[in-house]
Specification:
It is built from 20 helices and 19 strands. Helix content is about 45%, strand content about 20%. The strands form 4 sheets. Strands 12, 13, 14, 15, 16, 17, 18 and 19 form an 8-stranded mixed beta sheet that branches. Strands 9-8-7-10-11 form a 5-stranded mixed beta sheet. The chain has about 600 residues and is of the alpha+beta class. The longest helix is centred in the middle third of the chain and has 39 residues.
Length: about 600
């Protein structure tokens, strides 16, 4: 029997024979495991009154105390368990790890809505359709809709500053709401927006009927050019419907789930099948730390994945699995209660369903092999780097790079790697200000000062890579040496990655901080491979940030810097005078003729524009 410090005998006397959820703590505040049970007393007793496996044994040795919550039913207990796992993220529960948010198609709000692909936290000023199972499914749908419905596709910042039709309008793929429209043209634009909305909601037949009616009306009123446009749109829509039709009996919606496990990793692969077509796939990976031998990895995945209202529009009619899902009835009731969706769990399937299941299993196996290969390669590279730099137990590395265009709009990047590869959650960008344009040494000094202003807070990397030569390395030595000695914290190892002759990859020199010891490696060396990976990633991240900043500067209107000129007055100036060039060339008398612009404000605008 495992030695247990927790007084389980006294505790079990207080536990009722009722359904509920329980939480195990390793100290007063740290939750290490969350579970649920049809009968709390029987379930919790099983941990202590019988032989358990090694992982469960390790779990119960760490129990400080246990808390439980009684519920009305097992389904309610399951919902509570799911919520608590997401809240506490306990070590001994399998956690569904996937850093990608789901993609959506969105319609912006405002006078002239646009159609866009979106991924990220939901905003109130967008109308969402989805989510889609993967990026390719969302972008394929967006591309299709852009061909069928001529509504704007340009970003709001571009649309707000346009004064004449763009190329998309000239090709007939946009109705050009960026230029003044008649009332009839505006109504037509809103009609097309509504068609998009209906199409995304699955009301295809209603869209076809409305376009047919509009075509016939235009023909009756002898507007043959308009009728021809409606006819072409109608034919395109019908071709799309025909291309999406599938022969066969499986015209319903289902998710097919397959799992493959290694000693330390489980891959759960999901095929999303809608109307007989595979519209997307997704692989999820979880570390095998599950300590409860009675808990199923499959039911845990289903609970965490499907008990979410955000995925309500993606719910299938059937969930297909190879093995029978434990607690299937409780899961079914919980999903219905939490998300108002009816789903059926099927296993031991035949015919068409069996083919999809076989495909899911093959994908799960291939994804697991690829993931393990990546982890194995990453470990080999880290081990090689540790050996060369004479350092051990490297857990966290960072690399810094500077990007600008002739000294303007300088951006510094900080990318983070752990033992498994890129740790994008800790990537950071810094806009560099207050230095001489083009001074990379000063930029490096500023970014490191800002990053390590208090090394007692947050993550301190084991290695800091600097993209540059001895000049950038000297800045890193000065900043890190001063700050870390001030706070009496052990500083990271500093390594400069200096480019070789002709800036060719594979000719880089690694220069150690302070000692100036140099290492010349070749591309076949795993250590150089990981250094180049992190260096190239920091370079890419810095350039992307600089380009974004440069694009923002290009679309920034000088009118935005004038006090008292808000969006409405800017729009009035641009609309009345015909563009920013005309505003710049306008006299005070011309400016004060714009609605909403007083003589005093006109003088202010004129003075501001001509003092720049």
């Amino acid at each position: 029997m495992t030695e247990i410090s927790f007084d389980y005998k006294s505790f079990l006397k207080t536990v009722p024979n009722r359904p509920g959820s329980y939480r195990m703590y390793s100290d007063e505040d740290t939750v290490i495991y969350v579970g649920k049970a049809k009968d709390l007393k029987k379930r919790l007793s099983s941990y202590f009154l019988k032989e358990v496996n090694l992982k469960t044994s390790h779990l119960i040795r760490n129990i400080h105390h246990i808390e439980f919550t009684v519920t009305f039913s097992e389904a309610e207990a399951l919902i509570l368990e799911n919520n608590l796992i997401k809240k506490y993220q306990p070590y001994y529960n399998i956690l569904l790890r996937d850093d990608k948010s789901y993609p959506y198609l969105t319609l912006s709000k405002g006078k002239h809505p646009g159609l866009f692909y979106y991924r990220g936290r939901k905003k109130p000023d967008l109308e969402y359709f989805g989510p889609y199972p993967d990026v390719s499914a969302a972008k394929e749908s967006l591309k299709l809709l852009q061909k069928l419905f001529p509504i704007r596709q340009c970003a709001d910042t571009v649309y707000a500053h346009r004064s004449r039709p763009c190329l998309m309008a000239q090709l007939g793929k946009c109705l050009a709401p960026c230029v003044p429209m008649t009332e009839e043209q505006y109504d037509n634009y809103l009609t097309q927006v509504n068609y998009v909305r209906m199409f995304l909601k699955g009301q295809n037949q209603e869209v076809l009927k409305n376009i047919t009616d509009a075509m016939e009306k235009a023909s009756t009123e002898l507007r043959f050019e308009d009728a021809a446009k409606f006819r072409d749109q109608l034919l395109s829509l019908r071709r799309v419907q025909e291309s999406q039709s599938v022969s066969g009996d499986l015209m319903f919606d289902m998710d097919v789930i397959a799992q493959q496990s290694d000693k330390e990793l489980t891959c759960t692969h999901v095929l999303f099948v809608r109307k007989g077509r595979i519209i997307g796939t997704r692989s999820f990976f979880s570390k095998v730390v599950l300590a409860d031998e009675e808990q199923s990895e499959l039911s845990t995945f289903i609970m965490q994945y499907y008990l979410s209202k955000d995925r309500a529009s993606m719910y299938p009619k059937e969930i297909i699995t190879e093995d029978e899902v434990p607690d299937a009835q409780s899961l079914k009731e919980a999903i219905k209660s939490e998300c108002s969706r009816e789903v059926h769990f099927l296993s031991n399937v035949r015919a068409e369903r069996a083919k999809y299941l076989k495909l899911a299993k093959e994908n799960a196996k291939a994804s697991l092999i690829a993931k393990l290969a990546d982890k194995s390669t990453a470990k080999k590279r880290i081990d090689s780097l540790e050996e060369i730099l004479n350092i051990s137990n490297v857990q966290h590395m960072e690399c810094y790079d500077i990007s600008h265009t002739q000294g303007e709009l300088t951006v510094a990047s900080c990318v983070s790697f752990n033992r498994e590869g890129p740790d994008s959650g800790n990537y950071r960008r810094f806009n560099i200000e207050g230095i001489t344009p083009g001074d990379d040494f000063a930029a490096m000094h500023q970014v490191l000062t800002r990053r390590f202003k208090d090394p007692t807070e947050g993550i301190v990397p084991d290695i800091v890579f600097i993209d540059g030569g001895k000049g950038q390395l000297k800045q890193a030595e000065d900043v890190i040496g001063e700050i870390f000695s001030k706070f009496k914290v052990k500083p990271p190892l500093i390594v400069a990655v200096a480019k070789g002759e002709g800036r060719k990859e594979g000719l880089e020199t690694l220069i150690m901080g302070y000692t100036r010891e140099e290492f010349h490696l070749n591309l076949s060396d795993p250590a150089l491979q990981i250094v180049l990976h992190i260096r190239d990633e920091s370079h890419r991240f810095a350039i992307t940030g600089h380009r974004n900043r440069r694009q923002k500067a290009r679309t920034h209107s000088v009118l935005e810097d004038i006090q008292g000129i808000g969006p409405k007055r800017r729009q009035a100036l641009l609309k009345h005078l015909g563009g920013i060039r005309e505003v710049n060339n306008a006299s005070v008398d011309e400016l004060k003729k714009v609605p909403g612009i007083s003589e005093e404000m006109a003088r202010q605008i004129y003075d501001e524009l001509h003092s720049l």
